[in-house]
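Late entry, evening session. Most of the bench is empty. Finally got around to the prediction I had been postponing all week. Sequence below, unchanged from the version circulated by S.P.
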Amino acid sequence: MRKSLTALASALLISSVAVAQKVEFEEYTLDNGLHVVLHQDKSAPVVVTSVMYHVGAKDENPERTGFAHFFEHLLFEGTENIARGEWFKLVTSNGGHNNANTSDDRTYYYEVFPSNNLELAIWMESDRLLQPVINQIGVDTQNEVVKEEKRLRVDNSPYGNWITEVKKNLFKKHPYRWAPIGSMDHLDAATLEEFRAFNKKFYVPNNAVLVIAGDIEFNQTKELVEKYFGVIKRGADVPKVNIQEDAITQPIIATAEDPNIQIPMYITAYRTPSMKTRDARVLDMISSYLSGGKSSPMYKKIVDEKKMALQLFAFNYAQEDYGMYLIAGLPMGDTTREALQSEIDAEITKLQTELISERDYQKLQNDFENRYVNGNSNLESLAENLATNYLLYGDINLINEEINIYRSITREEIRDVAKKYLNSNSRLLLDYVPAKDESAK
């Protein structure tokens, strides 16, 4: 009876969480193709105004990598109405803050303001789209900014380049093979006309989604959106990347050197399907099961019990076209790659041939319930999730329905997806090692 009551209580809790977390929104499309999503939340006098453009590193010319990330910086230089250097001053002097970020698949800009500055936020983002100032002084300035960012985050950061090394080995055709920060030589060689052409091609209303979330009134907000964004002309249709990789049929063995590390990192990587697939979500659960915390089987066995690694982690790097499933470990002492790989493979084989326990399965479900709640717990995250679900997943209703997908994943699916993708003949084994001391020769 006690078990039954516990199960009933858990079911009621899950149900109440789903109801409490339901996100209400309105969406529509302007005549120029800009998709608009509005979410009302009057719990605080705050509003988030954000624009996500469907342009990322994968949309770049292979001889001009880094453009998408560069524009994340460049489009803060100013507009015809906002003088150079005034963008951030205008935001902070009106009680707001803002930021932007770039991935392989999209570029995202947002402002957070007191709700009485909603019109200011909408105007600023519309002006960035309508008439940005792209001139040589801005390009030269941001070129130095990006170079410094690369020096700090990649070149001089321990393990700062390992994801890039994985990508260039897993992808031979698709533009996921380079990093969003790109090549500094490519940026140096680019002309002002090339930057302007990139802006004209990708920064158009029909290649974007506008999300406004917070303390808003729908009718007033729609009027402001039409006033400032409705006047912007539709751009030419933007071609989408459609490049297929050949299947990996034998292991890829690679080595990369990093002068900033003393302990190697042994990486096992698998190419996986688009984040839009059900299998990608199963892989999310697999990564959480294998190394999600110190009680997970892989971490507990290899790090705690056998003390073969200082650290060990696994995660599913989900993207629009393909994903990567990554397992990385820092060996303890003289532990070899072969010894560490043998232990990792043993846990994968176990996952492929046995069902995880019911207890571990319930723990996974609880973990993903918690992620769901936390993922939409603040306006900034909520606005970005709405934009991502519309632009990249093609299903904005995932904001409410995605948790049901995770709930429906079975233990059998976890076993079968591990068997489908985590195979020794279709993976990369990358040794990311300290650079050799050339002076010692």
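Two things to note before I forget:
Residues 23-229 form a domain with the Cytochrome Bc1 Complex; Chain A, domain 1 fold (CATH 3.30.830.10).
Residues 1-20 have pLDDT under 50 and may be disordered.
Will write this up properly tomorrow.
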